Amino acid sequence: MSTRYNLRRLALTAVAAVALSSNVAFAEIKAKIGHAMPDTHPQATAMNKFAELAGIYTKGNVKIQAYHSGVLGSDEKQLQAVQSGTQEFYIGTLSPLSTRVKEVQVWDLPFMFQNEKEVYAVLDGASSKKIFEKIEPAGLVGLTWTGMGFRNLSNSKRSVAKLEDVAGLKIRVMANPVALETWKTIGANAVPMAFAEVFPALEIKALDGQENPLVHMYSNKMQEVQKFISVTNHVYTPVAIVASKKFWDTLSPADQAGVQKAATEAGLYQRKLLDEGDIDVVSKFKAAGVTVNTVSPAELARIQDKVKPVVAKFAPIIGEDFVKGFYTEIDKARAAK
Question: What is the pTM of this model?
Answer without folding.
Answer: 0.85
